[in-house]
């Protein structure tokens, strides 16, 4: 079936059309209940017995019949309008219904041939659900057509808009649960319509599903007056269409007829908006339609159990009949419930859907379970990337660190080329920080910020078709990016390091999706989720303690090593090399931390590319070891400011303790510190020992919380000789050097650490230790008196090469 976007309805649905909708809906509900309860006897061809039932009843019924109801009606409109439609479900607990829909479409059996469209396949469908070795209870990566698992609620609408950007012929039908609607991320997501371009982007149809209850509490939006609800949604910029179905005694076909009319009205309104936008008749931001669907929680399930009302209450949320294995009455109610769908009318003797049901599904890729963008790797095309080396900062080996540059500004110039060369498949997302993090003005040479709300004189870089997406919600920015990636495109999320924590759990949800998707053979890899964290802990000159938190790295590295990567480039050239690698990669969460302030530049582009390829390595020009003498100590660093302080410490040691044999190491890829069996990037022990030694003191200057380095290296031979300096929750609004002083990460403290840990050196060079202790005190006093760093620090320059140069 060929797609033809944005058609108006041809005719009102007939009685036979609605009967077909109802038959499909009953079949989907039957399959959903079967997944929760049945181990055998899938078509109830014999009396329901204890051995036919699962020993552990897992899953959620309450929201499921509402989801299958919407699916049934979308199938009708897709067939009639031939409209590409992606179905996004916020209530992840409705997983049985989404799986049932994919099965009735035939997509599930195509992806999993052993789950065939017959009685044996139906039994396998039922058995695998929430069962060891089977599939999860949510609409997870294993579910065809799903891009939103709904494990943690709140992300469905952001994902829906992310999917719609740059796909002008795509309709994204997004069901939002009324429990989900109470979350902060979802509340922010309503504002996405102010950034959607009606001509260049697809359309999102939000369907707010009010069934009245969460796990055990009523939902807020279901309990406020309708006038207030409608005013709220209109205030968000939507035109809400309200419909209530499933009242006691209402014939099913009447409910179908009323919802069909509302759905057709909504789709006609969208088609009109799209037509007006494409012809230039649309002169203002439209009020996009949305649907408010009220239906009973647990609709069509048991009305009453053990004397308590179930349908339409919180009691239907999970498993309405929990005692079916041991309670004959409950088992009888389950059999009655299943037979109420009249499965004999829906499935033939083989157990396959009868033609009335099977023909209700669209054909080919118009099936919601088969739409290619729901398996984004199938439609993903690699980015066209210019050679990042062409943007190199020139670094002369004879004068390393003499020139300064803003690393993220240099990156911005390269990203401007990425935007220019990939005008429909790459976007930058961030909470009002493209300029603050110095990606602008270079990025704005190629694009503007997308904006479809009001503009005023004096506004800069706002346009209906910009490639930068900004709103002050980290949840929304990441949600848009995830939806964009999951449907086959590419992007980058840039934010302040400290406030990346706002999406800690969102990172976890996406990482779990990637990990699970990698085990699904038919899921093709999607582009990596790339975080650029700047305005970091060590340079918060304007904001202070509240903005100082490097712990997002720790959160990321708690996730599966199969999907998480963390990079700490320490100058512009290493950042360019790292960014190129990340944008080319698939299937990962890449966390890149890089400073935005002017900073010394250390490596030529050739050196930077080689260093980043290794992930870590010795900086031979910085140390004093020679070919015929092993190092007495290793001074290591990860991060731009720690590397600056480590190099300054190395310079102090070269000058004041020339007899010391010192090795200097820099780490860009943090996961290289882990053992080979712990992470795919982990260095073999022999290679690690060749760099860090097995038994020499290692002083490690680290960007974040120091205990992370111990955690990553605890299996290494040198671990007992490893001493880490990092951020220890000492912060304020102060000078750059005072920040490192506060946390004992300064050059003097690092150099003292080396002396104190080399056997015998502390005793022989006590004078140097005292001198540097005094220097620390003098530096602290200078900032307190003058408000700036002491000249010997502020004006410090690297003085020339080591033995390798």
Write up what this structure looks like.
It is a single chain. The protein is built from 27 helices and 22 strands. The protein is α/β, with parallel strands linked by helices and 805 residues long. The protein has three domains: 18-375, Rossmann fold (3-Layer(aba) Sandwich); 403-599, Rossmann fold; 616-794, Rossmann fold (3-Layer(aba) Sandwich). The longest helix is centred in the first third of the chain and has 28 residues, at 252-279. The mean pLDDT is 95.
Key words describing this protein structure:
single chain; 805 residues; alpha/beta; Rossmann fold; 3 domains; 6-stranded parallel beta sheet; 27 helices; elongated
CATH homologous superfamily of the largest domain?
Thiamin diphosphate (ThDP)-binding fold, Pyr/PP domains
Globally, the shape reads: elongated
Question: How much helix is in the residues?
Answer: 25-40%
Distance between the termini: 68 Å
- Output mean pLDDT: 95
CATH classification, class level of the largest domain: Alpha Beta
Short description:
The protein is α/β, with parallel strands linked by helices and 805 residues long. It is built from 27 helices and 22 strands.
Present the secondary structure layout.
Blueprint: H1 15-37, H2 64-81, E1 85-89, H3 95-105, H4 107-111, H5 119-128, H6 156-164, E2 171-177, H7 184-189, E3 203-210, H8 220-223, H9 226-235, E4 238-244, H10 252-279, E5 288-294, E6 304-305, E7 308-309, H11 328-339, H12 343-346, H13 355-358, E8 404-406, H14 407-421, E9 426-430, E10 449-450, E11 462-463, E12 468-470, H15 474-486, E13 490-496, H16 504-517, E14 529-534, H17 552-557, E15 564-567, H18 572-584, E16 589-593, E17 598-600, H19 605-614, E18 616-618, E19 633-638, H20 640-656, E20 662-667, H21 685-692, E21 698-702, H22 707-713, E22 722-725, H23 736-742, H24 747-757, H25 761-764, H26 766-786, H27 791-794
Parallel strand pairs: 1-2, 2-3, 3-5, 4-5, 9-12, 9-13, 10-11, 13-14, 14-16, 15-16, 19-20, 19-21, 21-22
Antiparallel strand pairs: 6-7, 8-17, 18-20
Helix pairs in contact: 1-2, 1-3, 1-5, 1-10, 2-3, 2-10, 6-15, 14-18, 18-19, 20-24, 24-26
């Amino acid at each position: 079936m060929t797609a033809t976007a944005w058609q108006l309805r041809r005719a009102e649905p007939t009685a036979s059309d609605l009967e077909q909708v109802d038959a499909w809906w009953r079949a989907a509900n039957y399959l959903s209940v079967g997944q929760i309860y049945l181990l055998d006897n899938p078509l109830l061809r014999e009396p329901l017995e204890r051995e036919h039932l699962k020993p552990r009843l897992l899953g959620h019924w309450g929201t499921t019949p509402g989801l299958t109801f919407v699916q049934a009606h979308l199938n009708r409109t897709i067939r009639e309008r031939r409209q590409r439609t992606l179905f996004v479900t916020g209530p992840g607990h409705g997983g049985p219904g989404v799986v049932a829909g994919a099965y009735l479409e035939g997509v599930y059996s195509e992806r999993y041939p052993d789950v065939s469209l017959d009685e044996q396949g139906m039994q396998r469908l039922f058995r695998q659900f929430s069962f060891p070795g089977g599939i999860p209870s949510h609409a997870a990566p294993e579910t065809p057509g799903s891009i939103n698992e709904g494990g943690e609620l709140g992300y469905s609408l952001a994902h829906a808009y992310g999917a719609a950007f740059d796909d002008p012929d795509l309709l994204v039908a997004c069901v939002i649960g009324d429990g989900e609607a109470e979350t902060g991320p979802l509340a922010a997501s309503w504002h996405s319509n102010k950034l959607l371009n009606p001509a260049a982007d697809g359309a999102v149809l939000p369907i707010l599903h009010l069934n009245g209850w969460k796990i055990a509490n009523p939902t807020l939006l279901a309990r406020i007056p309708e006038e207030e609800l409608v005013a709220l949604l209109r205030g968000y910029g939507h035109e809400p269409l309200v419909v209530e179905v499933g009242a006691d005694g209402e014939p099913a076909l009447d409910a179908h007829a009323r919802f069909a009319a509302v759905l057709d009205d909504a789709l006609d309104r969208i088609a009109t908006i799209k037509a007006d936008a494409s012809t230039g008749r649309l002169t203002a931001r439209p009020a996009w339609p949305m649907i408010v669907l009220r239906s009973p929680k647990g609709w069509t399930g048991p009305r009453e159990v053990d004397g308590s009302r179930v349908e339409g209450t919180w009691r239907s949320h999970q498993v309405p009949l929990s005692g079916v294995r041991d309670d004959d009455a409950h088992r009888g109610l389950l059999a009655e419930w299943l037979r109420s769908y009249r499965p004999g009318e829906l499935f033939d003797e083989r157990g396959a859907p009868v033609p009335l049901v099977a023909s209700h599904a669209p054909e080919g890729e118009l099936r919601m379970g088969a739409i290619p963008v729901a398996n984004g790797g199938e439609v993903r095309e690699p980015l066209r990337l210019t050679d990042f080396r062409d943007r190199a900062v020139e670094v002369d080996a004879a004068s390393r660190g003499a020139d300064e540059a803003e690393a993220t500004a240099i990156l911005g110039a390269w990203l401007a080329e990425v935007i220019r060369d990939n005008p429909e498949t790459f976007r930058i997302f961030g909470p009002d920080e493209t300029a603050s993090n110095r990606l602008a003005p270079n990025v704005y040479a190629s694009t503007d910020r997308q904006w479809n709300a009001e503009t005023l004189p004096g506004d800069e870089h706002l346009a209906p078709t910009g490639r930068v997406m900004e709103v002050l919600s980290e949840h929304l920015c990441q949600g848009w990016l995830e939806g964009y990636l999951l449907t086959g495109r590419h992007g980058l999320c840039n934010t302040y390091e400290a406030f990346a924590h706002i999406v800690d759990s969102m990172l976890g949800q996406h990482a779990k999706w990637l990990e699970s998707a990698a085990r699904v053979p038919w899921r093709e890899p999607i582009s990596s989720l790339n975080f650029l964290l700047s305005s970091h802990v060590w340079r918060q000159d304007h904001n202070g303690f509240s903005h100082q938190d490097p712990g997002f790295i720790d959160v990321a590295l708690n996730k599966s090593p199969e999907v998480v990567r963390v990079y700490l480039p320490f100058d512009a050239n290493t950042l360019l090399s790292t960014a190129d690698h990340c944008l080319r990669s698939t299937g990962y969460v890449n966390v890149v931390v890089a400073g935005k302030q002017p900073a010394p530049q250390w490596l030529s582009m050739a050196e930077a590319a080689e260093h980043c390829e290794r992930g870590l390595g010795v900086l031979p020009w910085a140390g004093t070891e020679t070919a015929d003498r092993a190092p007495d100590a290793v001074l290591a660093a990860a991060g731009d400011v720690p590397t600056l302080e480590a190099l300054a410490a190395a310079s102090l040691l070269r000058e004041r303790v020339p007899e010391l044999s010192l090795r200097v190491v820099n780490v860009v890829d943090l996961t290289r510190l882990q053992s080979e069996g712990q992470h795919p990037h982990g260095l073999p022990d022999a290679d690690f020992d060749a760099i860090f030694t097995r038994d020499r003191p290692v002083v490690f200057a680290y960007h974040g919380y120091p205990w992370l380095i111990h955690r990553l290296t605890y299996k290494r031979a040198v671990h007992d000789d490893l001493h880490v300096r990092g951020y220890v929750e000492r912060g304020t609004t102060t000078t750059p050097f005072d920040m490192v002083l506060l946390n004992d990460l300064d050059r003097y403290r690092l150099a003292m650490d080396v002396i104190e840990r080399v056997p015998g050196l502390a005793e022989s060079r006590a004078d140097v230790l005292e001198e540097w202790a005094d220097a620390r005190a003098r530096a602290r006093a200078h900032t307190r008196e003058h408000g700036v760093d002491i000249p010997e620090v502020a004006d410090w320059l690297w003085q020339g090469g080591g033995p390798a140069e």
